Amino acid sequence: MSVRYPRPLRPGDRVGVTSPSSGVPESMRGRLEVALQDIRERGYEVVVGRCMDGATHISAPAGERAAELTEMLTDPTIRAVIPPWGGETAIDLLPLLDFDKIARAEPTWLIGWSDISTIATPLTLLTGVATVHGNNLMDTPYRTPEGLLSWFDVVTAAQSEPLTQTPPGRHRSSGWDDYTEHPGIRDFTLDATGHWTRLDGSGDVDVTGRLIGGCLEALVNVAGTPYLDVSSLAGDGGTLVYIESGGSDAYTVCRSLHGMRLAGFFDGANAVLVGRSPAADGRTLTQHEAVLDALGPLGVPVVADVECGHVAPYLSLVNGARGRVVHTAARSEIVQTLD
């Protein structure tokens, strides 16, 4: 696969905001305005779409959401598109998105995670256009901890510039900030310590490949379909697969990862990165044991507790980018290159 990267974002560019899955309820509009203003203050024009309603789990009917997202991704004046957050049923957009039209257009950055993985990961695999798994719009006001990169850092970087991230060693132990009560909050609550954990054995990890992955609860539903065919990407020196759970129990994680492995999603993987889970261990199966039970047969390094999921803080990963993962007793880091 020939990966295409949107050009770096520059001040004066337009950033589109739409909700391909869930919109923003009235009680959280204050946070939305804070996030939009942050983008404007960086020198960008913001275009807010029609599909933003947060009264139910979807912002608009599927046809309208698909049309607006396609419109923004193919509008030559919009250089990046970022939803407020994920949601529940973005899968209903897949048969409605015009992937051919998106592939013919000049590449535009799509940023998002959680349920947005249902769209972003297939978009990279079907069109060759790189997408960003990282902070969403409502996370944008947070100050980025040292060692990590925000989505702004990624989409404004020069294409040949190595993007290096290292874990801060701190994370949130549980819960979420209340945007209704504190719409302007800018500091993460990082009240627990922890580091990356190699699950498959001991020894140093130093491995490369093309990055691809996303949210487990989203991707498991399209594994084995044409929307999640990794073969062309894996053929370019193998992949670095990252996967994270939004909160499923250990038994569900185990079943889901087994299914994705059987469906071929991990074929060609040189290593697997697993996000830190917000869910508790099961009575007879821990989250780590669940991952190893399903992915141990791959025979590749499996590194868990990576900052790529539903536990703050968040590092940003580019689907399609060349990556190098190093994990030793002395350091852990991931380096991405957009080439």
Topology:
Layout: E1 14-17, H1 29-41, E2 45-48, H2 62-74, E3 78-81, H3 99-104, E4 109-110, H4 117-127, E5 131-133, H5 151-155, E6 163-165, E7 170-171, E8 192-193, E9 197-198, E10 205-215, H6 216-219, H7 231-234, E11 239-244, H8 250-262, E12 269-275, H9 287-295, E13 302-306, E14 317-319, E15 322-327, E16 332-337
Parallel strand pairs: 1-2, 1-3, 3-4, 10-11, 11-12, 12-13
Antiparallel strand pairs: 5-14, 6-16, 7-8, 9-13, 10-15, 15-16
Helix pairs in contact: 8-9
Put the structure in a nutshell.
This protein has 339 residues and is an alpha/beta fold. Helices cover 23% and strands 21% of the residues.
**What class would the helix/strand composition place it in?**
alpha/beta
Q: Helix coverage percent of residues?
A: 10-25%
Mean pLDDT: 97
- Gross morphology: globular
Strand fraction band?
15-25%
Describe the protein.
The protein has 339 residues and is α/β, with parallel strands linked by helices. Helix content is 23%, strand content 21%. The protein has helices spanning 29-41, 62-74, 99-104, 117-127, 151-155, 216-219, 231-234, 250-262, 287-295; strands spanning 14-17, 45-48, 78-81, 109-110, 131-133, 163-165, 170-171, 192-193, 197-198, 205-215, 239-244, 269-275, 302-306, 317-319, 322-327, 332-337. The strands form four sheets. The protein has an eight-stranded mixed beta sheet. Helix 1 links the parallel strand 1 (14-17) and strand 2 (45-48). Helix 8 (250-262) packs parallel to helix 9 (287-295). The radius of gyration is 18 Å and the shape is globular. The termini are close together.
